Amino acid sequence: MKAFFATFFIALIFTSCNSQTSAVRNLNPDEFQKGITASGTQLVDVRTPEEYREKHIAGAVNMNFNSNNFKEQINSLDKSKPVYFYCLAGGRSKKAAELAVAEGFSGVYNLEKGITGWLGANKPVTTANGTAPETGLSMEDYLAHIKNPEKLVLVDFNAVWCGPCKQLKPTVTKLVKKNSDKLELFEIDVDKNPKVATAMNINGIPLLILYKNGKEVWRNMGLIDESDLSAKLKQFIN
Hints:
Elements: H1 2-22, E1 24-27, H2 29-36, E2 42-45, H3 49-54, E3 61-62, H4 70-74, E4 83-86, H5 91-102, E5 108-111, H6 114-120, H7 139-146, E6 152-158, H8 163-178, E7 183-189, H9 194-199, E8 207-212, E9 215-221, H10 226-236
């Protein structure tokens, strides 16, 4: 009997957790756009203020997911009205949406692939001063740049708000300068180049991708120390 109740209790917890997560509806850009145009909706950008100022969906309020009082900010919203969350690629906004469900919100929606996917679908954004941001490189431009027949090309996907990107930059700059005769650096800000970020399915930064004659030969997501990066580059530098 005890075993039965233990199994029942675990199943109840599992069901409860699943129902909470399933209460968040993930929407593609078309569905998300249709939803936020309805009256009475609440649109929340959970990225950092720096990301928000760079570009955001018109009408969105900024509530930084990484702030200490994020939970309090969420609870300042009207729980009787739908709330739509988005971030850069969908990760932070999904967690924010799940928190909103836990706090008693019922109509909770998350933008799949975040503003990167939104821009990739050619949806409009605005900046802090109300102007349209630059669209950045096309995928054709990107492909043309990595096809260097004389040098390896190290692409550094980053963003101005990304702490680890800033931490990695001196290491990358130093090693590229050291091997400048055989290695070229190509830096891409994912916020300023959404088409490339979407086409390359960039879901996290910093991201390093090494190309030889236009073909990818190595990549690394996240931080990497100088000795490891130097050793990896030497494998491909003739």
